[in-house]
Queue: 4 jobs
Job 1
Amino acid sequence: SDNPQVGFVGDPNGVWGYLPPYSYGVHASPIAKLLNDYGLFAQAHSGFSWPDLQNEIAAGRPVIVWVIGEMWPGKPTLYKAQDGENVQFANFEHTMIITGYNQKKVEAIDAFSGQAKRYPVEKFLKSWQVLGNMAVTAQIWDPGQLVNHVYLSSILVSAQSTSVSSVSGHDLPDILAFPGMPLHIRLVQETPRQDRLAPQ
């Protein structure tokens, strides 16, 4: 599919920074579906507010957010997928996991490297709004329902009648940790990001 609302678009190990139909990534809905398949109660959001995100973090629940690159600014592009859906895209679509905040900064785990870093709140909010404040929230209702403490070399996402697509490290967290439950989702290793940038 060329629709990231349905599944991964392109090659997970392809050049980073392109738009569909070339290697791009995946949006929130397929990720929420995948996490639900592994025993979490996950929800995809569009237009998620900064206060809503703060409430999730205050409750001890990290939030996956869609930003541009390393919290860069960006410009959305409207694209009509082959299934007829109009979807917003942006070059260098990326995910991070917000794990903390204060009045000036947010703490985020980079979904590609697994490294934690702090960014100015204003810089984060500007980057997050490019793709419409997209996010995935998740809770564990019953730890016994989790499919193992999942260690995967790769994760497959399938949506209805579409073909199965691989999901890779720059679109899902390398480590997704929830307080009180050592859940780790390890994803396929990729070449360093600086070697995978789309040409300017």
Job 2
Amino acid sequence: MNQHSGSRNLLCFFCVGLAKCVPQNSDSVVFERIWQCFCQNGKDMKIKRETDYAIRAIRALINARGIPLISKEIADREHIPQTYILSIMGKLKNNGIVDTVPRHGDVPGGYRLLADPDQANIYDVVHIFEGDLKINACLREQDECPNRETCTVHLEMERINEALIEEMKRKSITEILNEKIPGKS
């Protein structure tokens, strides 16, 4: 029995929509090859902690409704370790997602959201922190694969990779934050 057989539908952080793209036949050799490509050293593929924290930081700024927040406030509201927050906010600022507001008298300074959350999506943030998203080494141009031109698994990996990116682009950050969790009021 494969070590992953109990969690086949939990391919990665983003795969709610992707699960329908992957064959569910447990006897499928193709499925097993695809599943192996989602794993690295026995761990499920996932985004970096820094990327997750960046998405949370953006959520804190959206919830602040235009009021600037200092990095400590963002970190405290979203349970982000102080060791990460300044680096994350710097990357978000350098990529035009947030801006800094200087303190003016009694008006606090801090970070504010610059990007329009109605237009920005999860992929925008993932791309900043992860670079080009490739779920398998065979999809990266710099990695050599002698079977790239004739490999059907490579073709399937390309299709799944494109589906994953499209899923991350499908909804704006605002749409995601406004969704209701099933079973919760």
Job 3
Amino acid sequence: MVIIEEILGYFLIGFILIAVLSVFYIPFYFLLRKKIPLIRQIVYFLFGACVFIILSATVFIGINIVPAGRRTLNIIPFRVFTESWEMGFIKKISQTFANIVMFMPLGFIFPVAFKKARKLYTTTIYMALFSFLIEFVQYFIGRSSDIDDFMLNTLGGISGYFIFAASKNGITKETEFVIILEYCPNILDTFSASFSVKCGLSRTISGLIWFFLSASAQLFCKTG
């Protein structure tokens, strides 16, 4: 439960940052609206927001140029799973999942934004290069540079791509009605007894998230 709460906390921070960035983007929308369609702008904005949030979490926050003797580097794969951390097991697991989850939105929006990235190997290469660049910079700014972080980030990007691939073709006219009929009534469940509240809410949220991902992927790809 602690791990889930911490991961959800990261998502909440991300949504807040996107909301703030969207406010600053409004003037650019009006400047570009005659050249770039709204949907395209939304896609590019979300891509840029994902990149900015990742860089903020991994590079911009806590930047501090350090001498060579104080730099930390780990080139031993899977060391994160074999060594204990001073911060404790729970923090270790949550940070591991965070490294994966952090790149999942980028892995999803990247092939949506760029047609040439709609192949698995293309997205994988770009996610790996971006993660490598982050780890390379972290080595010089007082943060640990770790091959495990590189692999987990890349895995997150690949996972995001698989969500894109599944959602792109995962919804049809027929399944739209199935989703609506199956999940919308569960909204009422959230107001029932305490035990059914959690079940109904979780099913409703999961259904709506899948519906949104599927619809957005198809819409953006068709217009792109």
Job 4
Amino acid sequence: MIHLVAPRVIALVWRILGIAARGAAHRSRRRARWVVRPRTGVKFPRRPTDTQSVIPASSQPTVHPCTSRFRAPADLESLRFFRGALAALIDRRGTCATRSGDMLLALSEAVTNAIEHGSRLGDEVEVIITWDATSALLQVVDHGSGAAPLITRGAPPAPPATALRGRGLVIIHAVADTVAAEAVGGGTRLSMVFHHPVLAAA
């Protein structure tokens, strides 16, 4: 009788041990895929390791539009702030050097015009920068100087060679791919589009 029961008991024990081992392995795989964030108790996927599958490069999402807004007092001292903000974004996006220079030049001229001709004491100037995979949109918004905004279509005529001022819009039209101005409230919004090759995504 003992000889008949012993093999059955041994087989049953091995079967129980096998089930326990498979359950432990399954739990280990689940822990490898998820991590519990301390304090919150919320589970988040772990970063892929060398042994885990990753999303193919062809399935990676494209660069989506990203917008940044900056405001500063309508004072020429703010020009450095706006240029620095744009330069930092250009460095992050990896825009080519030629387009970078055009964008910084156009922004300087547009902000200078907004401060000197489109603002009053105590006003602010706003700069809005929108990026996507192939272009950048720069917008400079002022609150107006009290006079009716001067909206022109197309590039204005160049001033005489002896003139010391008046070349801001001429320069902007020369370096930007598209320029548009529109009245916003009592002020003006100048929009400038620059097509560029992006060397590195943000």
